[in-house]
Each structure stands twice: as structure tokens, then as C-alpha cells.
Amino acid sequence: MKVLLVFDGSINVIGGAQTFARNMIKIYKQLGYSIRVICTEGKPSRDVVILPSLKVLGRTILFGDIGKVLEEVKNSDIIHLFYCESVLHLFVALAAKFLQKKIISSPLASITYFFHHSIVKRMIAIPIVFIKCLVALLSDIVHVAAFYDLLVYRRIVSESKVFMIPHGLLSSQQEKPINLPNCELRICFLGRFKPDKGSHIAIKALEILRKLGYNACLIVIGSQDCLSSNYFSERRIFFTGFLREDEKNFVIKHCDVGIIPSLSDPVEAFSIALSEFNRLGIPVVASDIGALRFRMRPYAGVLVKPRDPFELSKGILLARKLKGKVKKLPDVIDLKQEALMWKELLKRLQENYGF
């Protein structure tokens, strides 16, 4: 059985959606499926095809090698679409439907685009949501990770097509020490250090804490891809780059607080960062947005007003008091559990459609 995964962007960078895509590749391989991947960014390999593309606001509107795309769709049994918000996704979904292939879509955020922090993104919310709805209607299975998206998509397509499977994580809690900055208050940021993830809010909150006399530092588990090294080092901001699982566990466990200062609902459609912090029992300060407001457990952290560095800094000081009191793994499923859930779903797909 052959599966074609379609991802608009690169799957080999740090990010929640990218982690999910990489985990799905592992799961499909564990279940005995052969995998091909189409991306619009990154490096090609034996199983990964990179399409030349023209993007607007991060979404592909034109792409090359249409013949190659059609060939990949034709040679596959299942098409799995991630994000589902670009012309590429719609084209592949229509081609797969015409060729009578089975389609699984994982749309992540949906109508929340109408409440995006960026006015430009709100202006293009109608075509994005329109494409998501069309892809969902063309799909045999619509996969969501969070409960509130389950409710949304069951209003768009048949209830029998929509399934909720939370994104799983590796359960290993092994640690490998790495050098960490010496400071009184270590704050951890996990993932893409970008404006939509609240990078500038995190920097301002750190500055507020340091002005109040706290020897605080921000450790970003991710890559530095903006501004200069001097800018960050002067502000006590440190980047680890891409880490192995055991190294990441060590960094998170040796921080006092994890922060998720994202700006608006569609940025946190599920939040694997929250799962990572919960898995290791680290208190979290998160924006009161998206899935975070539904998934944050009592006594596990603090929800704060988004886009407000003063509220974030206050939340950090409150959450710090919870260090050592947060229970591990209360709402986080293991990658093996996720694989079992997908196994049942794929079995049902095979039984219903006879392939």
C-alpha cells in the first residue's frame, strides 16, 4: 500500500505541524505502508519530491512539475494532505478524486483564520477557508487533533468522515546533558521563534523581568534565523538549534517555565509545544487562544492575554511557583497510541472502500 503525503513547505524544520508530519511518516512505515512525500521547500531525497513553487503569504499559488504530481497521485493508494490551504492541496485533492484514490486531510486550523492577528491574513481568510472546506468535502477522512475542530468540521462534512486523533509524542524521558546558561530564572521557548509565535512578546517580557531585577534568560529550542547573534546574547536569549530527543528533554526539564506566547487562534490549532511541556511536568504560560484555552489543565500553568508582554511576565512569575508540582503526561498520548489509532482508522478505510 502506497501513501503520498503532501505538505506545503518543508517538513525538516522545527515546528508543530512539521513534527506531526514526520511522526506520520514513522507511523505509516511502522504499519507497513510505503511513503512518498511532496513538499514545496527543503531538500529532495529518494522519497521526497520538492516542487518549484510561487508563494504568497506562505501559501503556494503556482507550482511546477504538474506531470510529476499527477504521476505521484496515480501511483499511490492513499493521499494524505497536511494544512489543506493552498492551490497545491486543492489540485492534488481534485486529481485524487478523479483518479478514485482515497483522500485523508489534516486541515488543522479552520474558521479561526477570520480571527487571525494579522489583518492581511484575515483578508485572505475567505479563500483559505474555502479551500479547506473543498478539500474536506473531497476527502474520505478528515483528521483533526483538537475537540473544537472536531465540532467545526462535523458541521462542514458528514460526521462519519471526521475523526479526532491527537498528535502523539515519543514517551522517552531519557536525558543527555548539554551546556545551559547560568541564570536564576530559565524560560523555555519551543519551536519557531517567529513573530506569529510571539517572539517579540517573549523578548519584551524578558526585558521587563530583567528590569525588575530577575536574573532571567530565554532558551529557545530552535534555530536563530533573524537579527544578529549580538542582539540576542546581549538580551540573554540563547538558541539551541535542532536537538535530539534526549537533549531536548534535558533542556526542558532544567527550565523553570515554558512559554507559548502565540498571537492568535490559527497559530495554535493543537500545540505540540504544550504537550512537550506537559509530558515533562514543566509549568506553562500560554496565550489564551486556539486550542491552548481548551487544553491547558488546572494547576499546570497560566493562561494570559495574548500580545501583552506585561501579562506574560506576570504569568511567568506565577507559573514559576508551580515548578515541581505539575503532574506529567495527564493529557498527552504516546506515539505508539497514536499509531494504534491510525491503524484502526486505516483498517476502517480499507474495509469501507475495499482496497
Q: Strand count, sense and closure of the main sheet?
A: 7 strands, parallel
Instruction: Give the SSE string.
Output: EHEEEEHEHEHHEHEEHEHEHEHEHEHH
Fill in the CATH topology of the largest domain: Rossmann fold
Q: Name the shape in a single word.
A: globular
Tally of strands: 15
Round the Cα radius of gyration to an integer and report it.
Answer: 21 Å
Poorly predicted regions are none
Instruction: Give me the secondary-structure category.
Output: alpha/beta
Biggest sheet strand line-up? 3-2-1-6-7-8-9
**Relative helix content:** 25-40%
Classified in CATH, the superfamily of the largest domain is Glycogen Phosphorylase B
Whole-number total of structural domains: 2
Describe what this molecule looks like in 3D:
By secondary structure, this protein is of the alpha/beta class. The chain has two domains: 2-168 and 334-353, Rossmann fold (3-Layer(aba) Sandwich), CATH 3.40.50; 185-320, Glycogen Phosphorylase B (Rossmann fold), CATH 3.40.50.2000. It is 38% helix and 19% strand. A seven-stranded parallel beta sheet has the order 3-2-1-6-7-8-9, with helices on both faces. Helix 11 (292-295) links the parallel strand 14 and strand 15 (301-304). Helix 1 crosses helix 13, helix 3 (87-98) runs parallel beside helix 5 and helix 7 (199-211) packs across helix 12 (309-320).
